Automatic annotation (TrEMBL):
Keywords: Cleavage on pair of basic residues, Disulfide bond, Glycoprotein, Hydrolase, Protease, Secreted, Serine protease, Signal, Zymogen. Pfam families: P_proprotein, Peptidase_S8. It comes from the Eukaryota. This is Neuroendocrine convertase 2. It comes from Sphaeramia orbicularis (orbiculate cardinalfish).
Amino acid sequence: FFFFFFFTFFDSSVKNVFDQEGFSRQKRGYRNINDIEVNLSDPLFTKQWYLINTGQADGTPGLDLNVAEAWQLGYTGKGVTIAIMDDGIDYLHPDLASNYNADASYDFSSNDPFPFPRYTDDWFNSHGTRCAGEVSAAANNNICGVGVAYNSMVAGIRMLDQPFMTDIIEASSISHMPQVIDIYSASWGPTDDGKTVDGPRELTLQAMADGVNKGRGGKGSIYVWASGDGGSYDDCNCDGYASSMWTISINSAINDGRTALYDESCSSTLASTFSNGRKRNPEAGVATTDLYGNCTLRHSGTSAAAPEAAGVFALALEANPNLTWRDMQHLSVLTSKRNQLHDEVHQWRRNGVGLEFNHLFGYGVLDAGGMVKMAKEWKTVPERFHCVAGSIQEIHKIQSGNKLVLAITTEACQGKDNFVRYLEHVQAVVTVNASRRGDLNINMTSPMGTKSILLSRRPRDDDSKVGFDKWPFMTTHTWGEDPRGTWVLEVGFQGEEPQRGVLKEWTLMLHGTQSAPYIDQIVRDYQSKLAMSKKEELEEELDEAVERSLKSLMSKNN
Ligand SMILES: *[C@@H]1O[C@H](CO)[C@@H](O)[C@H](O)[C@H]1NC(C)=O
Ligand SMILES: *[C@@H]1O[C@H](CO)[C@@H](O)[C@H](O)[C@H]1NC(C)=O
Ligand SMILES: *[C@@H]1O[C@H](CO)[C@@H](O)[C@H](O)[C@H]1NC(C)=O
Ligand SMILES: *[C@@H]1O[C@H](CO)[C@@H](O)[C@H](O)[C@H]1NC(C)=O
Ligand SMILES: *[C@@H]1O[C@H](CO)[C@@H](O)[C@H](O)[C@H]1NC(C)=O
Ligand SMILES: [Ca+2]
Ligand SMILES: [Ca+2]
Ligand SMILES: [Ca+2]
């Protein structure tokens, strides 16, 4: 993440510092698998390639969550409670019972305190139990495998197993005991049929807002969301839960770094973890606990990816319980890694402050070791501000072969109390209709030149009536950028038949800080860089850079 600091906080006169090789070494730090000393008795532990990937099941060695480093530093999730919002948890399972937090659990599907899964012959309701094991399965007990945060506590919130979902059930679930539950993991959302556009309703939105503002004593509930299983036919920016700023949306890679076939891409995904797909090897799935005391090697889908992220966040929270919901997102952005992920469709790119991202994987795969180390030293990010950068509310026609290009030039509320200088999330609130909604595609480019694909083609979506009504498309790709300047929105059609449509609104919403985050980290990282460096020349150069940056920071912050 050195690039980030450099571009964000150092003036252009020190550009040559950026060219030093050392920076990219830091970002993708090599880890020798043979150095890992984790000796656990759990029979499935060595099958859990997503924890430590030594090349099991034809995987790529080193492509994992780097949990071993976090464990070796002593972080295993102690004192942290993660709720699995799902179809229940087999809390009698011998690998889960000791970590089960009964007091924080509830069954909203049948209104009782016992979220035990309902029996069906086909084990349909095994999902929550499998997710729970990924987070909190106990270690060294000779049963199944181990959780990412194997000393954390897991709560069951049963809420998926009733005939209809209601706003009240969702809202009650995500606001259940927000002072006890630290992290909520959700592997559900609107139907992944490639034609649904839907999101949280009124009560659930309010519950989420209350969660991030008041949960955990005001530091904010951490909501982890699976980005969806709709594959290339769907776009997770059409899922208002995954695309919410208040959730951390997680996608998945398979054990050789490829995308899974069910992966949806979108600009609101923050980072990725692991799941199965494509591979026939039965051990390429996710090994975890299963119903009625069993274990499985075959947990799957982005559903399996979200709980892994919840586990990593539990390790970070143990390292620093002061982390806010935004700190967790910043840490994910800064420490996630490209590693050996590859997306055949979308390039990896760097945004205007040097952070590497991908349209499908977000900022890359979570790195538990990197995260706890940074979390330990982390200072809460500065206050967040919100700026309506501009709004176009006129009728604009869109036609196949003739895309609409609109621009908003903004000062990002500079000179006002709510000036946003360092971006976190950006939302483009769009009202548009079309003769075929699924053929619409929308891109937005920031003043620093970062293009976000806000909406890609969804071939199955044949809506011609509703369109998008004040829909908040979100991007995380411009994280850390300076939003001042001209933003460009491009709206066009892709597909066989000619289409037409009308855009009625584009409102650009900026969210972020006025003062530079990570000031302390910059200095510390430069210092450690200096300590490691053998070249005196480099030392001098870096010393100067630190001094200059501090001066410029002070002038910027005053
Ligand atoms: C792992 O632990 C077991 C039991 O404590 C011991 O017998 C075994 O030698 C250890 N293996 C390694 C590689 O340290
Ligand atoms: C699950 O566990 C039960 C009881 O231990 C056992 O009888 C059954 O065969 C197991 N099922 C599977 C699919 O492993
Ligand atoms: C958390 O915050 C408290 C109070 O501000 C402070 O004393 C403590 O050092 C912080 N802990 C960490 C790990 O930063
Ligand atoms: C889109 O909205 C415009 C203006 O309200 C309307 O005239 C047009 O018929 C609508 N088009 C579609 C495809 O719904
Ligand atoms: C948006 O970007 C994608 C990917 O670069 C491109 O294929 C598409 O044509 C663009 N659409 C518009 C409307 O500019
Ligand atoms: Ca029950
Ligand atoms: Ca175990
Ligand atoms: Ca979806």
